[in-house]
Predict the structure.
Amino acid sequence: MNKITIIGTGSVGSTIAYTLTISSLASEIVMIDINGEKAMGEALDIRQGTPFTNSCNIYAGSYADAVGSDIVILTSGVARKPGQTRLDLAQINVNITKSIIPEITKYAPDATYIIVSNPVDILTYTFCKYSGLPQSRIIGSGTLLDTARLRSRLSEYYSINQQNVHAYVFGEHGDSAFVPWSFANISNVPIDEYHDSVLKADKIYPELKKDEVEEYVRKSGARVIQRKGATFYAVSVSVCHLCKCLLNGIDTTLTVSTMLNGEYGISDVCLSLLNIVGREGAHSKILLPLNDEELVALNKSADTLKQIINGIEW
């Protein structure tokens, strides 16, 4: 019996609730929004389809209804508007998050918190600083979606099942994210050697242009927004996968955003590295032996986030 609370019932929050329901990951889902009517409408729409899924009690509620939650997912906040700087957006959503923290932690102090709202690394940092909860229980969705986009793109390059592609996106969920290519591989074959390792290949693989792949990953969200106005399907599937890993009895490695406390010489900032995630939250980090170029990229990403943190009125 798993109980999950979702704060914010916009496109992302509602799609997460729907995906959780049809995935049978939760037996109880509470949807909370400042617009109570919207939350009630979304919950009702999903609930009326549950006769064709495993039983799930999904309803709109208040913070008090979050009591006993195993997971709380934060999707509340405003979207970035044209002409608005990332710092402007950060300040607004930091203020919103700070107002939510005491209200929700009062009722769900033992839950694992998943931060999805953007800028996700800054809001994960905010939650770490102001909630008083163990850092292992505060997880930003970070580059989990970026990593999925990367693996999807590489699988297209080589016409291979995505589950055979092992590659990561580290750093900020944003423009300073980077791929540690020295660890990218397909079925344990380094990505740079895969083309020559395939015998009797009946097709010609395109040249792997790493810069183009990274640009594709960075701009994917913007391209979807340009075409349909918002992104919510892929991020919802990613967040539900994270929930599944948290509820499973066996640990899983994921690129999620957590607080750094001296790893790679970086402290007091949240960004994505490879974390071990399970019932105890994001309880351990795997420190890959990054090469010099990758270390420079990681520090650049951390500095980018620290500039935003330093510009916010706390």
Notes: The two ends are 38 Å apart (CA to CA). The chain has nine helices and twelve strands. The first strand starts at residue 3 and ends at 7. The chain has a mean pLDDT of 94.
